[in-house]
């Protein structure tokens, strides 16, 4: 997101507990941590190689004789892909800032804020836009009347693509999630056995598929990554992504963080530097495991 440098807040009595609003964790952790992310091989420069195997089918057994010749009945192939996101971030922290902010502006706290507010959301935004680019999105406008019908169609397509439904995740915006909760046919659960009666309208799983809400700003078709992450002016709103994490490879090839103690070169300040290099790729032999619903591009 856009950043404007402001004066450091030197509060005389500043709480050590930072109260950053809604700190981020990854909304797409299942994809970043999927087994497929570890199956690549580093190549030259930014090129990565993702291996796959195919085999022939079985045949009837001849119990009476051994005839013919034995053949190699498998093939291997390598999908060459290129990493795109070679990113870095650095900052200085003056020891006087540490002292006069009551040790709030420490390297640990500043880098924690960067990770939660910038790094992880940037990676999630990039991943959502890449998933959008991997398929031809369904641009059907979702309503309370049709969302379950579209949902059933998506699950049918995933089943025909041999995607394991218990492994599939559905990421959707809060607005889409609200449509799902309000859809005709969704059952409400009323707890009448407790002293405090409650109605559970949470939809954490539907037809065996895990569901997670993702903020709208992380579900765009395109972003500007010049500094941080900003939705592109002509970006379409992604409403829902259904994906088998094993249909995507999202490797982080290189990640390093370094800190230098105050020196004459840094004019007595701490220097922190971080670099990370990542990407996301569709696995060609599992391409059917990704479905996207999005608005039309303006």
- Integer count of domains: 1
Strand share of the residues? 25-35%
Q: Provide mean pLDDT, rounded.
A: 82
Q: Helix segment count?
A: 5
Distance between the termini: 22 Å
Radius of gyration computed on alpha carbons: 25 Å
The chain-level structural class is: alpha+beta
- State the helical fraction: 10-25%
Strand order in space, largest sheet: 8-9-5-12-17
Order of helices and strands: HEEEEHHHEHEEEEEEEEEEEE
Largest sheet data: 5 strands, mixed
Structure, explained:
- With 298 residues, this protein is of the alpha+beta class.
- The chain has one domain.
- It contains five helices and 17 strands.
- It has helices at residues 29-32, 95-100, 107-134, 147-160, 174-182; strands spanning 41-42, 47-55, 74-82, 85-93, 169-172, 189-191, 198-200, 205-206, 209-213, 223-224, 230-231, 238-243, 248-249, 252-260, 270-278, 281-282, 290-294.
- Strands 8-9-5-12-17 form a five-stranded mixed sheet. It has a three-stranded antiparallel sheet with strand order 1-2-3, with no helix packed on it. Strands 4-15-14 form a three-stranded antiparallel sheet.
- Strand 10 and strand 11 (230-231) form a beta hairpin.
- The radius of gyration is 25 Å and the shape is globular.
């Amino acid at each position: 997101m856009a950043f404007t440098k402001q004066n450091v807040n030197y509060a005389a009595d500043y709480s050590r507990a930072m109260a950053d609003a809604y700190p981020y964790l990854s909304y797409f952790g299942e994809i970043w941590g999927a087994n497929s992310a570890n199956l690549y091989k580093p190549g030259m420069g930014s090129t990565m190689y993702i291996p796959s195997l195919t085999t022939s089918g079985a045949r009837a057994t001849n119990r009476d004789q051994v005839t013919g010749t034995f053949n190699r009945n498998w093939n291997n192939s390598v999908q060459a892909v290129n990493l795109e996101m070679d990113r870095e971030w650095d900052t200085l922290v003056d020891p006087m800032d540490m002292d006069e902010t009551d040790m709030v502006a420490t390297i640990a706290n500043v880098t924690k804020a960067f990770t939660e507010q910038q790094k992880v959301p940037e990676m999630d935004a990039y991943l959502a836009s890449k998933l959008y680019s991997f398929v031809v999105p369904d641009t059907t406008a979702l309503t309370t009347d049709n969302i379950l019908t579209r949902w059933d169609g998506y699950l049918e397509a995933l089943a025909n693509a041999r995607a394991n439904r218990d492994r599939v995740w559905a990421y959707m915006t809060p607005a889409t999630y609200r449509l799902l909760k309000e859809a005709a046919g969704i059952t409400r659960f009323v707890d009448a056995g407790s002293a405090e009666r409650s109605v559970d309208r949470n939809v954490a799983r539907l037809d065996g598929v895990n569901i997670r809400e993702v903020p709208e700003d992380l579900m765009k078709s395109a972003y500007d990554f010049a500094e941080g992450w900003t939705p592109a002016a002509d970006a379409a709103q992604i409403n829902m992504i259904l994906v088998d994490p094993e249909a995507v490879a999202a490797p982080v090839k290189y990640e390093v963080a370094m800190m230098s103690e105050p020196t004459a070169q840094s004019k007595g300040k701490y220097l922190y530097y971080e670099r990370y290099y990542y990407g996301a790729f569709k696995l060609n032999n599992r391409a059917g495991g990704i479905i996207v619903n999005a608005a039309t591009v303006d």
